[in-house]
Specification:
single chain, 309 residues, Serine Threonine Protein Phosphatase 5, Tetratricopeptide repeat, Immunoglobulin-like, 4-stranded antiparallel β-sheet, 9 strands, disordered N terminus
Length: 309
C-alpha cells in the first residue's frame, strides 16, 4: 500500500523528469516534437490521476516519437507504480542506455533495479531482425529486455518474414542469452534452387565470349608490334637502295603476320561480342529464366531446425 508521501514523491520525480524533456526548443517544432510534447503532458496528467499504466504507455509513446532518457525514466516510474516490474526494468534499462539521465536519476535507477531484479529475468537477444517477446513488440536486434518468470516465446522477423522462433523458460533473477542464427549458420543440407539448362548455357556462352574478347585484345597488341617491325624492315630495305633482299623478305613476312594477326583479332572480337550481347538482345521468355531462391526462413519447432523457402 502506497503512503501519500510516497505517491507525492513519485509524482515529484516524474515532474522533474518531464519539465525539461519535452521542451525541445522554444522555436518552431517538427510534427514529431509537437506530438512528443503532447504525449509527455498527457503522461504527466495520467500519472497525477493515478492511472499509472496509461501514463507509462503514454511516456513510451513519447519516447517512440522523440527518443528521450527522461521519457523512459518516467515510464519506468509509472510501470513500477502499476506493479509491472518487468516493464519497469525494461524502460529503465533503455533509459540508462541513452546516457541522458541526471546523476541523481541514474543512482536511483541502478539502486532500485538491484532491489527489483529478483522479480524478473533479463533476456539478451543477439542477431539481426526485429524481435517480439512478452510485452516487447517489433524491437530492433540486438536487444535487452526484462520478462516475468515463466515461459516466453521469442519470435524474430527479418525483411517482414519470420526467420526464428523459440520458447525459453526463465526464473526470477536469472539472465538468459538467445542468439538468432543468421544465413551463414544454416545447415549444409539446405535445398537450393538449381539453375536451369538455359542459365547454364548462357553462362558457358558468356565465358567463351569473354575469352574471345581477351584473345582479340592480345591479337591487337601482337598485330601492332608486328606491323611496327614490318615498317622498320621496309625502311631498312629502302635505305639499302632496294638491294637488301633479307630486309625485303623480313618486311614482307612481318607485314603478312601483322595482317593475319589483325584478321584473327577482328574475328575474335566480333565473335566475342556476339556471344556476350546475343543473349541480352534475344532474351528468352520469363519461364526460361532460372528462379532465384528467396532468403531462407529459419523456424525452430519440436522437431529441431526446419528450413523453408
Amino acid at each position: 500500500m502506497r503512503t501519500p508521501s510516497k505517491t507525492r514523491a513519485s509524482r515529484l520525480w516524474v515532474v522533474v523528469a518531464v519539465v525539461a524533456a519535452p521542451a525541445v526548443a522554444a522555436g518552431q517544432r517538427t510534427p514529431d516534437e509537437e506530438q512528443a510534447s503532447r504525449l509527455f503532458r498527457a503522461g504527466l496528467e495520467a500519472f497525477r490521476a493515478d492511472k499509472y499504466e496509461t501514463a507509462a504507455q503514454t511516456f513510451e509513446a513519447a519516447n517512440d516519437r522523440i527518443p528521450s532518457g527522461a521519457a523512459l525514466f518516467n515510464a519506468g516510474r509509472a510501470w513500477r507504480q502499476s506493479g509491472d516490474v518487468p516493464r519497469c526494468l525494461d524502460a529503465w534499462e533503455r533509459g540508462l542506455a541513452t546516457r541522458e539521465l541526471t546523476s541523481e536519476q541514474e543512482t536511483y535507477v541502478r539502486r532500485t533495479m538491484l532491489e527489483l531484479q529478483g522479480e524478473a529475468a533479463r533476456l539478451t537477444i543477439a542477431g539481426r531482425g526485429r524481435v517480439t517477446v512478452s510485452h516487447v513488440r517489433d524491437r530492433a536486434l540486438p536487444a535487452v529486455t526484462w520478462v516475468a518468470p515463466g515461459a516466453h516465446t521469442i519470435r524474430v522477423v527479418r525483411n517482414d518474414a519470420p526467420v526464428f522462433e523459440t520458447t525459453v523458460r526463465v526464473s526470477g533473477g536469472a539472465e538468459r542469452q538467445v542468439t538468432v542464427p543468421g544465413p551463414a549458420l544454416l545447415p549444409a543440407e539446405v535445398t537450393r534452387v538449381e539453375d536451369g539448362p538455359s542459365s547454364g548455357r548462357k553462362s558457358h556462352l558468356s565465358t567463351i565470349g569473354w575469352s574471345l574478347t581477351a584473345l582479340a585484345g592480345g591479337a591487337a597488341i601482337a598485330g601492332g608490334i608486328t606491323g611496327a617491325l614490318a615498317v622498320d624492315a621496309r625502311d631498312d630495305f629502302l635505305d639499302s637502295g632496294r638491294l637488301d633482299v633479307a630486309a625485303r623478305d623480313r618486311a614482307s613476312n612481318l607485314q603478312t603476320a601483322s595482317n593475319v594477326t589483325w584478321t584473327v583479332g577482328a574475328c575474335a572480337l566480333v565473335g566475342g561480342l556476339g556471344l556476350l550481347l546475343g543473349p541480352l538482345i534475344f532474351e528468352g521468355d520469363a519461364d526460361d529464366r532460372p528462379s532465384v531462391p528467396a532468403e531462407p526462413r529459419v523456424l525452430l519447432n519440436h522437431h529441431g531446425l526446419e528450413v523453408r523457402f
